[in-house]
């Protein structure tokens, strides 16, 4: 099992520059990769460049970036630019379809044919990431590449069958978000089958998982807030309903707001799709994810009452160092 760390600006009352502190700590503790998550607050490539300035060794991945709001060349150029300004650090790109709420509500762009656009973009970005200086920036262009390739992996965030097929056909890594071990097992089987159909080696399988070791009540609330938005999503709502949280699922279906949903979710719901609890509990949960077929856990540390997620990242650093050699 590999471990990485997600440095993402939360859309709540947490400090805007908190991702910088999370990344600096992760690098100091020896985690090999940091993800610069994109959202309404931070641009992923700007954040990745900033993270490169506060870290020394960690590889960087920007995204997932919604494919409906950027063209393939912009994505590849962004990664190469970050690599150039961070001393040749390996920089990867993560792609996703995001949601209508983000693509249309934040960016004002239509979210049309998202699975098809994801597939087309992944194919194009994969080719662009491996270009060399002196070549046309895109086929047929009179402009020439001046920046070396960024050297990082192409990641595709996937959940539905068509997105999984896109990851199997084009990605180095497929990313899941906030999933249970049972979901990992099912999605790993789908990825294996899709890769076989595509005639490629299976991409590695990673998941962003909320993490909180010995969490304070504030951290539990933060994790519950991060999963509240999934209560209406097909494939997730069934998991929560089967886990005993049907009342919260029904509230979400009726249009309840985030605060109401967090109040309706018991504390144990936080551990359904993440690493939450005492250290022994979290270690056992990691084993369950590994047994289900997950190759990499991208830790999304709860930072409420634990600035930069220091308690959680420190507690899990020894496990990460041991398993990653």
Automatic annotation (TrEMBL):
InterPro entries for the chain: F420-G6PD/mer, F420_Rv3093c, Luciferase-like_dom, Luciferase-like_sf
Keywords on record: Oxidoreductase
Enzyme class at the top of the EC tree: oxidoreductase
Superkingdom of the source species: Bacteria
Domain Luciferase-like: 1-295
GO MF terms, alphabetically ordered: oxidoreductase activity, acting on paired donors, with incorporation or reduction of molecular oxygen
EC number: 1.-.-.-
Pfam families the record matches: Bac_luciferase
Protein name: LLM class F420-dependent oxidoreductase
Provenance organism: Streptomyces asoensis
């Amino acid at each position: 099992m590999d471990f990485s760390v997600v440095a993402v600006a939360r859309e709540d009352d947490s400090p805007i520059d908190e991702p910088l502190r999370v990344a600096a700590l992760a690098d100091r503790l020896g985690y090999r990769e940091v993800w610069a998550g994109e959202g309404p607050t931070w641009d992923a490539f700007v954040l990745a460049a900033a993270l490169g300035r506060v870290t020394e060794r960690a590889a960087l991945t920007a995204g997932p970036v919604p494919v409906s709001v950027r063209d393939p060349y912009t994505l590849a150029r962004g990664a190469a630019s970050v690599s150039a300004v961070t001393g040749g650090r390996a920089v990867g790109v993560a792609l996703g379809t995001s949601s209508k709420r983000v693509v249309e509500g934040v960016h004002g762009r239509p979210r049309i044919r998202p699975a098809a656009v994801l597939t087309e973009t992944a194919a194009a970005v994969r080719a662009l990431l491996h270009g060399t200086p002196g070549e046309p920036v895109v086929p047929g262009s009179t402009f020439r590449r001046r920046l070396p390739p960024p050297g990082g992996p192409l990641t595709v965030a996937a959940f539905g069958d068509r997105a999984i097929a896109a990851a199997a056909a084009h990605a180095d890594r497929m990313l899941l978000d906030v999933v249970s071990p049972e979901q990992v097992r099912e999605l790993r089987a789908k990825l294996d089958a899709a890769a076989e159909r595509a005639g490629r080696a299976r991409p590695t399988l990673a998941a962003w998982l909320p993490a909180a070791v010995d969490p304070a009540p504030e951290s539990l609330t933060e994790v519950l807030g991060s999963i509240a938005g999934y209560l209406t999503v097909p494939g997730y709502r069934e998991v929560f309903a089967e886990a005993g949280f049907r009342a919260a699922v029904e509230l979400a279906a009726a249009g309840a707001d985030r605060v109401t949903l967090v109040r309706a979710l018991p504390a144990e719901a936080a551990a359904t799709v993440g690493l939450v609890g005492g250290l022994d509990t979290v270690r056992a949960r990691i084993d369950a994810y590994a047994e289900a077929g997950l190759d990499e856990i991208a830790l999304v540390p709860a930072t409420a009452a634990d600035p930069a997620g220091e308690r959680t990242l420190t507690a899990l650093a020894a496990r990460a160092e041991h398993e990653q050699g």
